[in-house]
């Protein structure tokens, strides 16, 4: 088993290294990237993307993060596509993953409809605002979006590093809105072999934060599981399993509204989108199987490092400093 | 004693229907997406934007790209369904419409339960998603 893990990590590292070398990461400026893009035959790009996204899908599952949050910073940093297209495809990638995961979560009661629907309404509405704002800023100057994306990605890195989610938060008193909307339920805990009853609190601050989450999801095409889970779990007091399941289901609604904006604006290029979606979904399926044998903690640390690097690179690119290549 | 058979753990009927529709819809959309993509990249159906033009311009912002490639925005792609690249939008559109279909099921389920608050939330969500899909917000200005 150890041997298998070692082989897998070597393979993933090798693929990442090769991909980053064939990508225009070493190009020094936009002109070089354009040249690098035009010197390769067109069919190389979908193939590279397919393999890259497959590895990304595996790593994302093992690290417990969504595909979109890795896809946007890495593809915008290392591929020759404009950030408008990367964000559009990033949303389609996150949407496909969330929609595919939805049925299993709903059937097992791990995604709670009553908790998800009001939150989704807020997030999806503001995802439209975020998408429009993001496209407007990008039209003014794409570097603004690059810098904001970099700051957000670096922030996500810190969030993943420092947030300590709680398996079963203690909620002593359910607030009135939570009670009225029925933000409570129960699920079967297979580990403890018992039914876990849960309820939430701090509904208003939670719902207000989903305004911001929706905007960020729409603006950067990141998906928003990284933000949904801490708000549902740490702030509102939903158990970890419910927070994760509901967050994934929630993404299928939030990302739908933002994805339509990007689709209607022409930001989804099929040549880029389909290999990205298929690669990430296949990678996720393999990732789920590897979860039993891999060391998620080590991979999570690796992903946090990648996020810091991708975030700083986006800031560097946006500010035109050229410190990170 | 609480067990796995506890009635409280039963998944609500509308949630099961939602999951069933999603299962079929998502995998059908993805299968369609792959088939249409193959027709496109293997040259069975000629694209509107040639691969050379595409790769030379995908580093430009979307407004410039659309102008150079004379590509439509909004629902303009429907008029170009005879082109390999825009045919792929059928798969994307279907995938993005799944949530709307599923919410119609929710509205019916909540109405049957006389849960007017959640029925209203579901209806408003359908309106939001439909507005997003309509192109009212997305297709302006280039």
Q: What's the domain count of chain B?
A: 1
Strand content of chain A: under 5%
| Uncertain ranges of chain B | none
Largest interface in this structure: A-B, 75 and 71 residues
Q: What count of domains describes the coordinates of chain A?
A: 1
The secondary structure category of chain A is mainly alpha
Q: So what's the oligomer here?
A: heterodimer
Helical content of chain A stands at over 70%
Major sheet summary line of chain A: 2 strands, antiparallel
* Biggest sheet features of chain B: none
Number of strands of chain B: 0
Task: Quote the distance from N terminus to C terminus of chain B.
Answer: 65 Å
The count of β-strands of chain A is: 2
The whole-angstrom Rg of chain B is 20 Å
> Helicity level of chain B, as a percent range?
55-70%
- Taking the alpha carbons of the first and last residues of chain A, their distance comes to 38 Å
Instruction: Provide the succession of SSEs of chain B.
Output: HHHHHH
Secondary-structure element string of chain A: HHHHHHHHEEHHHHH
> How would the global form of chain A be characterised?
globular
Can you describe this structure?
The complex is a heterodimer of chains A (325) and B (142). Chain A has one domain (2-319). Chain A contains 13 helices and two strands. Chain A has helices at residues 2-22, 30-39, 44-63, 67-78, 83-107, 113-140, 142-162, 176-181, 203-220, 225-235, 240-264, 270-290, 296-319; strands at 184-189, 194-199. Chain A has a two-stranded antiparallel ribbon with strand order 1-2. In chain A, a hairpin with a 4-residue loop joins strand 1 and strand 2. In chain A, helix 6 runs antiparallel to helix 7 (142-162), helix 9 crosses helix 11 and helix 10 runs antiparallel to helix 11. Mean pLDDT of chain A is 84; it is low at 17-31. By secondary structure, chain B is mostly helical. Chain B has one domain. Helix content of chain B is 64%, strand content 0%. Chain B has helices at residues 13-41, 51-57, 62-69, 84-87, 89-112, 116-134. Chain B starts with 12 loop residues before the first helix and ends in an 8-residue tail after the last helix. The mean pLDDT of chain B is 90. The chains are: A mainly alpha (325), B mainly alpha (142). Chains A and B meet through helix 2, helix 5, helix 6, strand 1 and helix 11 of A and helix 1, helix 2, helix 3, helix 5 and helix 6 of B.
């Amino acid at each position: 088993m150890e041997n298998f893990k070692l082989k897998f990590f070597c393979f993933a590292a090798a693929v990442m290294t090769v991909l980053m070398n064939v990508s225009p990461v070493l190009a020094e400026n936009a002109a070089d990237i354009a040249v690098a893009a035009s010197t390769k035959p067109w069919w190389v790009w979908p193939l590279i993307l397919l393999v890259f996204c497959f590895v990304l899908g595996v790593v994302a599952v093992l690290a417990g993060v969504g595909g979109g949050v890795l896809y946007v910073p890495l593809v915008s940093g290392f591929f020759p596509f404009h950030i408008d297209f990367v964000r559009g495809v990033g949303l389609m990638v996150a949407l496909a993953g969330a929609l595919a995961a939805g049925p299993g979560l709903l059937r097992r009661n791990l995604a709670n409809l009553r908790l998800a629907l009001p939150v989704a309404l807020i997030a999806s509405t503001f995802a439209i605002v975020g998408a429009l704002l993001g496209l407007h800023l990008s039209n003014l100057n794409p570097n603004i979006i690059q810098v904001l994306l970099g700051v957000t990605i670096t922030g996500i890195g810190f969030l993943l590093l420092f947030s300590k989610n709680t398996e079963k938060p203690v909620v002593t008193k359910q607030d009135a809105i939570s009670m009225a909307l029925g933000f409570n339920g129960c699920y079967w805990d297979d580990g403890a072999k018992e039914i876990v009853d849960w309820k939430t609190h701090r509904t208003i601050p939670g719902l207000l934060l989903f305004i911001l989450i929706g905007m960020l999801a729409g603006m950067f095409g990141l998906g928003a599981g990284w933000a949904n889970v801490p708000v549902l779990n740490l702030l509102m007091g939903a158990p970890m399993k419910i927070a994760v399941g509901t967050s994934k289901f929630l993404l299928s609604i939030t990302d739908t509204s933002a994805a339509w904006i990007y689709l209607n604006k022409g930001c989804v290029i099929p040549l880029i989108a389909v290999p990205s979606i298929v690669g990430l979904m296949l990678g996720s399926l393999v990732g789920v199987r590897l979860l039993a044998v891999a060391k998620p903690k080590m991979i999570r640390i690796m992903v946090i490092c990648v996020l810091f690097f991708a975030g700083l690179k986006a800031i560097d690119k946006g500010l035109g400093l050229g410190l990170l290549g | 004693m609480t067990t796995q058979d506890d009635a409280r753990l039963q998944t609500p009927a509308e949630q099961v229907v939602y999951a069933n529709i999603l299962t079929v819809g998502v995998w059908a959309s993805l299968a369609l997406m792959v088939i249409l993509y193959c027709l496109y990249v293997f040259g069975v159906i000629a694209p509107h934007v040639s691969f050379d033009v595409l790769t030379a311009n995908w580093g430009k912002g979307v407004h410039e790209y659309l102008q150079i490639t004379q590509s439509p925005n909004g629902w303009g792609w429907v008029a170009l369904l005879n082109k390999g690249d825009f045919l792929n939008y059928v798969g994307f559109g279907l995938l993005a419409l799944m949530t709307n279909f599923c919410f119609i099921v929710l509205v019916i389920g909540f109405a049957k339960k006389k849960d007017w608050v959640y029925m209203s939330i579901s209806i408003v969500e359908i309106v939001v998603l439909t507005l997003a899909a309509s192109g009212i917000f997305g297709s302006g200005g280039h």
